[in-house]
UniProtKB/TrEMBL annotation, chains A, B:
Keyword terms, alphabetized: Amino-acid biosynthesis, Aromatic amino acid biosynthesis, Lyase, Phenylalanine biosynthesis
Protein name per its UniProtKB record: Prephenate dehydratase
Pathway assigned in UniProt: Amino-acid biosynthesis; L-phenylalanine biosynthesis; phenylpyruvate from prephenate: step 1/1
Domain Prephenate dehydratase: 2-182
PANTHER family cross-referenced by the UniProt entry: PREPHENATE DEHYDRATASE P PROTEIN, PREPHENATE DEHYDRATASE-RELATED
Gene Ontology terms: biological process: L-phenylalanine biosynthetic process
Superkingdom assignment: Bacteria
Keyword Lyase attributed: yes
């Protein structure tokens, strides 16, 4: 099976793909649109792109591209903790506290703010396009007293030694990735990481009016459908036009969710089911 | 007046600051936390950081840092269109269609997907840490047939010639920046760009239960308070705990918003006013 993902190699997206699909052929893409296009052109069986991730992409770019350009079904979701490690060339492992420069993505450095402030206050920060580019850069300069902040996969890929584990400031910092396919067929994943099912809807309100969102949520509330996420996003049709992304904490059924959708459509909302799919926590 | 902002120079954040505060002393910071800390330490009079921006930062990092680390009041918001331009060294201005490589932030390249596909299909894409770093790189290599995608300020700063304007795929793509201060005092900005007022609340639900959000929105709906944004964000206290960021389309008043907050607190929600402030559209 061929799985495309937002590259480069050894980023957090790669880590999620490697954990979920250990035997798949992995193909990195440079941008989220390129990865989604490759799914659409059937170059790959599925694509994995970040949905909520401060490091490698943003919900905006992924959802905007899916909604405006290539409406592919979401067939799965991967939730992964952000675990940042400090790594150096093996040559510097015993005197890592003396590193003079730390390389990483600017957001990864921001995520390790407290650790760096307490332990490596004098080291200079150098920003790279990704955490994995930082690990590669450090691995190619064994003579320099420098370190990278990246994930475990990057340490393995580039032969670096992790000298401090889990240096990120918050333990419950997670990234979310979605799996998209050309056809709405789930990947047959028999994984102990399976954690439940959800359904994602896009709802466009007829016009911006006080209480319209409240009316929309009523359709879910009285059916006791639990929403785990709601986000308003500006539509690209003019300032002040919005659509909503809503996650419902269950699989598509034959009564409740179709009933809620019918009610929303009767209110002149436009509703699109972006997917009903299993999610996995790694 | 000293205004700090998320750097480097000539990014979209700098463009927003330059437009709003043409006479201020501008100080770039490397990361969102550094800029917010500088406000807190009173090194600067105000800080400008991105709130919704796929290029230079993310709502997550800014709001998380404000909510978890440094609760500074939001005193203003700047909404700016994303306008991407293709620029080259003046030497190449007449034969820009022959450029072999295009330098920019990966998201900026993604935002200009259609233009690049139609006009510069064979050019290789090279990713940089920011659009402004790309413009600087191109300006320093006049002998190479390369181009950058960046904003107008970067073209001016680095002496590049814009050869194609507005090559971004969507016209209504906007970035939002917030202005934070140490004290909750508005900056006295007498600007024709003033477009209205809003109030931003953080609401933490007592526990994850079906319909809880619906109940929260009722408090606003029956008072005819118009919400222009709602976003659920995972709290960093465990998977499945959420808080909500809600924007109300008006200034803090003495009756309606305080009444809604009192009602939410009676439902055991925790409510924090992140700011009540004017916004400007540039």
């Amino acid at each position: 099976m061929k799985i495309g993902y937002l590259g480069p190699k050894a980023t957090f997206t790669d880590l999620a793909v490697t954990t979920m699909f250990p035997r798949a052929e992995k193909i990195p893409y440079h941008t989220i649109p390129e990865c989604i296009d490759a799914v659409s052109n059937e170059e790959i069986d599925a694509g994995v792109v970040p949905l909520e991730n401060a490091l490698e992409g943003s919900v905006n770019l992924t959802l905007d591209y899916l909604i405006h350009e290539q409406l592919l079904p979401i067939v799965g979701e991967i939730i992964a903790p952000i675990q940042q490690h400090l790594m150096v060339h093996p040559y510097h492992a015993h005197h890592w506290t003396e590193v003079k420069e730390i390389y990483s993505h600017s957001h990864a450095i921001a995520q390790c703010h407290k650790f760096l402030h307490a332990n490596l206050k004098k080291a200079k920060h150098v920003y790279m396009t990704s955490t994995s580019a930082a690990a590669k850069f450090v691995s190619e300069r064994p003579h320099l007293p420098i370190a990278a902040i990246a994930n475990r996969l990057a340490a393995e890929e580039y032969g670096l030694t992790i000298v401090q584990e889990n240096i990120h400031d918050y333990d419950y910092n997670h990234t979310r990735f979605i799996i998209v396919r050309k056809q709405n067929e789930p990947l047959k994943i028999d994984s102990p990481l399976y954690a439940g099912d959800k359904t994602t809807l896009m709802v466009m309100l007829p016009k911006d009016q006080p209480g319209a969102l409240h009316q929309v949520l009523s359709a879910f509330a009285w059916r006791k459908l639990n929403l785990t996420k709601i986000e308003s996003r500006p539509a690209k049709t003019g300032l002040g036009n919005y659509f909503f992304i809503i996650d419902i904490d269950q699989k598509m059924d034959e009564v409740l969710i179709p009933g809620a959708i019918a009610e929303l459509e009767a209110l002149d909302c436009t509703v699109q089911v972006l997917g009903s799919y299993p999610y996995y926590i790694i």
